[in-house]
Amino acid sequence: MGFLFSKPSYDPKRDIPDLTGKVVIVTGANAGIGAQTVEQLAQHGAKVYLACRTESKARAAIADIEKANPALKGQDRLVWLPLDLSSLHSAKAAAEEFLTKEKRLNLLINNAGRLTAEYVLTSEGIEESVAVNHLGHLVFTTTLLPLMKETAKEKGSDVRIVNVDHFYMTLPLRE
User: Gene3D superfamilies, per this entry (predicted)?
Assistant: First the structure.
């Protein structure tokens, strides 16, 4: 019962290790949990790719983070990576673009998600929520996996994939 009445003991300033030299990708990084995650990782030294659909939103998130953390400005530790998870082709292309830019990937945080909305098929014939929340991340991750395996071979390396669950799907009840 103690956990219900105790104060949280996690403190990002104290509990996140130095990430200098680490390379990270965060999908859905321009808002919410994704943007907060990017900010904490960058504050601790990581180079973070904001994998987002919209350049203007990604650049605005980068500007907001740099404004709140002036020491990050001009460090080139916050980078936009174009990624539209509703397109499997785009997911693969984004991962392949990243592979041309970096020789390591320490952490992949699959955070992007689509809220429940109208039933819409993508140009590839996949229901859009399924494409964004599941299949796009699958293609993106599997394309990056060989690089992550190579990074994991480095001495002292700690490579991880974090999947943030966005289970927003609600089904209408039928009588």
Answer: NAD(P)-binding Rossmann-like Domain
Structural tokens at position 171: 């089904």
Write out the two tokens for 25: 């990708």
The answer to whether the pTM exceeds 0.70 is yes
Overall residue count recorded for the chain in this entry:
175
Residue type, 51: A
CA-based radius of gyration for the chain: 17
* Residue from 56, 53, 59 nearest 136 by CA: 53
Q: Choose among 101, 112, 110: nearest CA to 161.
A: 110
* pLDDT per residue as tens digits for the range 60-119: 999 999 999 999 998 899 999 999 999 999 999 999 999 999 999 999 999 998 877 788
Domains observed in the chain: 18-130 (3.40.50.720)
